[in-house]
Task: structure prediction
Amino acid sequence: MDVYEAVESRRAVRGFTDRPVPEQTLRRVLSAAAHAPSGSNLQPWHSYVLTGAPLAELKKRAGERLAAGDPWDEPEYEQYPAALKSPYRERRAAFGEQRYGSLGIPREDVEARQRAASANWDCFGAPAALFCYLDRDLCRPQWSDAGMYLQTVMLLLRAEGLHSCPQMAWAKFHESVAEILVPPKELLLFCGLSIGFEDTAADTGRTPRAPLDETVTFVGG
Ligand SMILES: Cc1cc2nc3c(=O)[nH]c(=O)nc-3n(C[C@H](O)[C@H](O)[C@H](O)COP(=O)(O)O)c2cc1C
Result:
């Protein structure tokens, strides 16, 4: 698969089959992804890969918390600014319309939206998940390093015929994740990444992007 194909075919997939992901494949992907760039080669990411019984246990605990109406864990970082300004506010709204509209859920049906969102904590049925932690003492550029690393993982997964969904949603249940993974105290959970083979019946299509001239300025030439 060439790089364009990997980039174009990567989507946040929100429906997976239960076909297991071979550990060898995950090892191959994560060994290659270790070549992602990072400032001064800090390689600040700490990945935990969860499959089998411990992943099932995490999903069960998260499901029980959802069913009990448990509040989210104390946030360890702000996921978005409190007042999201234009054009991000409009892009976020358009994304919500597309995501829930494709499931036939109207804007005003908050409960149905929440039900659909709760699939996050079942990893959308995925049989494998990666949890990316960062040292809480590090700075913004190291968070960006983690983003590059995760994108590298996602593209390599495409080369293996696998799909993924990055999930900040897991940060809302970081304490449950920590109960299973027992990470050192100095680490905080940035993002989960569900991994598996796509359930094509759940395909809701591609999410559009802003036109190039909204996000790129060419100067000179
Ligand atoms: C850091 C990060 C966190 C995300 N968190 C979630 C999440 O918690 N749940 C979810 O369904 N999608 C999540 N997404 C997926 C985005 O919604 C998705 O990437 C975006 O809408 C663009 O769609 P595409 O990836 O399918 O092209 C996240 C993406 C990123 C990069």
Notes: The radius of gyration is 18 Å. Helices lie at 3-9, 23-33, 52-67, 88-101, 110-117, 140-159, 174-181, 212-215. The pocket of flavin mononucleotide is lined by residues 11-12, 14, 95, 120, 165-169, 191, 207 (CB under 6 Å). The mean pLDDT is 96.
